[in-house]
């Protein structure tokens, strides 16, 4: 398992946090996600043999947020 923290722009409430968490958890190989509204980031624990960080960015952007 590896952990990656991404800075995210555009989250304004708990619903946004939930949306970001949900799209990330739907990816294969993602075992846990910790999204912080205060810090505007997401800590993702994942299996690098199953998922690549580029997929995190795409999933977050598809959900309507920006990875900075
Ligand atoms: Cu929101």
Describe the overall structure.
This protein is α+β, with helices and mostly antiparallel strands. It has helices at 14-25, 53-62, and strands at residues 2-9, 30-36, 41-46, 66-67. It has a 4-stranded antiparallel sheet. Strand 2 (30-36) and strand 3 form a beta hairpin. The radius of gyration is 11 Å and the shape is globular. It starts with a strand and ends with a strand. The structure holds copper (II) ion. Copper (II) ion binds next to helix 1.
How is the topology of this model organized?
Layout: E1 2-9, H1 14-25, E2 30-36, E3 41-46, H2 53-62, E4 66-67
Antiparallel strand pairs: 1-3, 1-4, 2-3
The protein binds copper (II) ion.
Copper (II) ion is lined by residues 12-13, 15-16.
**Largest β sheet strand count, sense and barrel closure:** 4 strands, antiparallel
Which CATH architecture? 2-Layer Sandwich
Q: Got a strand count?
A: 4
How far is the first residue's CA from the last residue's CA? Answer: 23 Å
Please state roughly what percent of the residues sit in beta strands, choosing from under 5%, 5-15%, 15-25%, 25-35%, 35-45% or over 45%: 25-35%
User: Percent of residues in helical segments?
Assistant: 25-40%
* Widest sheet, order of strands: 2-3-1-4
Q: What's the average pLDDT? A: 98
Parts with pLDDT < 50 across at least 5 consecutive residues: none
CATH topology: Alpha-Beta Plaits
Protein structure class:
alpha+beta
Radius of gyration: 11 Å
General form: globular
